[in-house]
Write a structure and sequence with these properties.
The chain has 161 residues and is an alpha+beta fold. It has one domain (20-148): Nucleoside Triphosphate Pyrophosphohydrolase (Alpha-Beta Complex), CATH 3.90.79.10. Helix content is 16%, strand content 37%. The chain is built from 2 helices and 10 strands, in the order ββββββαβββαβ. Strand 1 (2-6) and strand 2 form a beta hairpin. The protein is elongated and about 65 Å long. The mean pLDDT is 94.
Length: 161
């Protein structure tokens, strides 16, 4: 969406663009029997259970953002395995329009809640706590389809490419 603004100092006409915010979400499979996944309990509105994730910082790649958010929210160092998809419905986040690139990742160890997470939990992907924040129920349904071989995933670009 574009709108015109006028500079109060010089009167010049400026164009301002309102674009969706780029975000990442990470489905973290633990290296354990049954491949359980890690969810965080959000400490901020909207509250509830969600996939680890957040906003991409300026100068950061999507892959870097996914690793950083996973570490900040769960304390886990993740190996990114694949891209599950991009989610961009304007109503997916009640705060503002954003678009999220969702990564599949693997980690070992015990997750712990980071500073912006109220809690962290390990769940069977087929029995998450409910309801989930945002559109994460849809994302987890797509993840389960991927695990069952009914949905493709894309490779993650190497940082050196």
């Amino acid at each position: 969406m574009r709108r015109s603004l006028t500079c109060p100092a010089c009167g010049a006409s400026l164009e301002a663009w309102r674009n969706p915010f780029p975000t990442v979400d990470v489905i973290i499979e633990l290296a354990a029997p049954g491949r359980p996944i890690v969810l965080i309990e959000r400490g901020r509105e909207p509250r509830g259970w969600a996939l680890p994730g957040g906003f991409v910082e300026y100068g950061e790649s999507l892959e870097q953002a996914a690793r950083r958010e996973a570490a900040e929210e769960t304390g886990l160092a993740v190996e990114l395995l694949a891209l599950l998809g991009a989610y961009s419905r304007p109503d997916r986040d009640p705060r503002q329009h954003n678009l999220s690139v969702v990564f599949l990742a693997r980690a070992a160890g015990r997750p712990r809640a980071g500073s912006d997470a109220r809690g962290v939990g390990v769940f069977d992907a087929y029995a998450p706590p409910g309801p989930l924040c945002f559109d994460h129920h849809t994302i987890l349904a797509h993840y389960r389809a991927w695990r069952e071989g009914r949905r493709p995933a894309a490779p993650v670009q190497a940082e050196s490419d």
